[in-house]
Amino acid sequence: MEIEVIENVMQYNKEEADVNRSLFKKSNVLVINLLSAPGAGKTSLIIETIKMLGNEYKIGVIEGDISSTHDAQKIKHLIDEVIQINTGGTCHLNASMVAHAISRLNLKNLDILIIENVGNLICPVGFDLGEDFKVVLSSVTEGDDKPVKYPKAFIRASLVVLNKTDMMAYNDFEYDFFESKIKELNPNCPIIKVSCKTGSGLDDWADWIRAFLK
Ligand SMILES: Nc1nc2c(ncn2[C@@H]2O[C@H](COP(=O)(O)OP(=O)(O)OP(=O)(O)O)[C@@H](O)[C@H]2O)c(=O)[nH]1
Ligand SMILES: [Mg+2]
Questions:
Q1: Structural domain boundaries in the chain
Q2: Is the CB of 186 within 6 Å of ligand 1?
């Protein structure tokens, strides 16, 4: 008797991700899979991104959460192309969930699609969604040791964004330690420091995105 093994789940996800990827390419849309721990500022960063780039580019958002439409409702005030995925308890998005979501979006009309993954630095890392880039958002209030404790997320990142830098004065966050640990894991990974509250560094983030849209 043949026993189905767990690798098959990942293989299935990879095949679905490849289908998403070819659809994204065909539609000429840049896709960012945004990963972070709960509350690091994913939704805040998406809102600020729409405010900065929304006049230049058409932006769509897929919101992944275990339950509620709370984040999607905030984004809906700014743009039309927003879909909420409720995973119903699953701690990550998978390619099949994203395939359902994009079937409801007008992809051909979009330049940028941002996928807010479920707040979690562990499970979402292994699931390819067909994105161009995984961006890992870390925040000062979580502490400077996140690359040490959740290395896979940082290894897979194309970019690390450090948010809540306005809180630096109130935390014993050592930036040099944080940066050195990321460089050990992923030597070529850029790091952008931002504050969604004060706006500091957000221009660098917008420029990082723009560079792929030229
Ligand atoms: N001080 C400060 N607070 C921030 C900043 N960015 C976000 N916040 C606050 O952090 C909290 C969480 O922000 P969200 O954007 O909802 O975080 P999230 O990662 O989307 O959270 P989940 O979707 O629950 O995983 C909110 O109260 C934000 O106002 C920042 O740069 N500085
Ligand atoms: Mg959110």
A1: 7-210
A2: no
Condensed to tens digits (0 to 9), the pLDDT of residues 148-184 reads 999 999 999 999 999 999 999 999 999 999 999 999 9
User: What does the alpha-carbon distance between residue 214 and residue 69 come to, in Å, rounded to a whole number?
Assistant: 33
Query: What is the Cα–Cα distance from 70 to 199, expressed in whole angstroms?
Result: 23
* pLDDT tens-digit series, residues 7-59: 678 889 999 999 999 999 999 999 999 999 999 999 999 999 999 999 999 99
Give me ligand 2 centre to Cα 119, in Å: 7
Atom of ligand 1 nearest to the CA of 163: 31
CATH topology of domain 7-210: Rossmann fold (3.40.50)
CA of residue 28 to ligand 2 center, whole Å: 26
The whole-angstrom separation of Cα 40 and Cα 104 is: 28
Q: Is 190 in the pocket of ligand 1 (CB under 6 A)?
A: no
Rounded CA-CA distance 48/131 in Å is 21
Ligand 1 pocket test, candidate residues 33, 42, 44, 114, most atoms within 8 A of CB: 44
